[in-house]
Amino acid sequence: MDENVVEEIRLHQETIAVDNNSPLHLIREKELEISGRVLSAKREADEIVASARKKAAEVVSTAEAEGGAGAADREKVIRDEAKAEADRLREAAHAEAGKLKEQVKARRDDATRLVLDAVTAI
């Protein structure tokens, strides 16, 4: 694109040198003016695209950071809930074990008598 612009400028200078008021000169002048506008618009569009890409990268980076922080917070909540559930189950198991020990203690004498009666009956 830049080579075309340079070539157009050379042609424009040659045309100016030959005849300033010819229709070809006026047409060429307008073509150069429009070409300059197009080049300027392209540069502006490139700047806008670059700015948008930079902003998008920042948004993605921020979202990833916030998502990571949110995931860490959620992980902590889940771990705390799991620990509380494990503690509750452990306490329930200890209570059940205590009840079973009491039942065994209460029934031991009866079981001992049963076994002795069975052995002595033979």
Overall mean pLDDT score?
83
Oligomer: single chain
Q: Fraction of residues in helices?
A: over 70%
Q: With helices defined by DSSP (H or I, 4 residues minimum), what is the helix count?
A: 2
The number of domains: 1
The portion of residues forming beta strands comes to: under 5%
Structural class by sheet pairing and helices: mainly alpha
Distance between the termini: 115 Å
The gross shape turns out to be: rod-shaped
Contiguous runs where pLDDT drops below 50 for at least 5 residues? none
Radius of gyration: 46 Å
**Number of beta strands:** 0
What does the main sheet amount to? none
The string of secondary-structure elements, in order, is: HH
Briefly summarize what is shown.
Helices cover 94% and strands 0% of the residues. It has 122 residues and is mostly helical. The mean pLDDT is 83.
Structural key phrases:
122 residues
Question: How would you characterize the overall build of this protein?
Answer:
Helix content is 94%, strand content 0%. With 122 residues, the protein is an all-alpha fold. It has one domain (2-88).
Give the secondary structure arrangement, pairings included.
Layout (H helix, E strand, L loop, with lengths): L1 H17 L4 H98 L2
Helix pairs in contact: 1-2
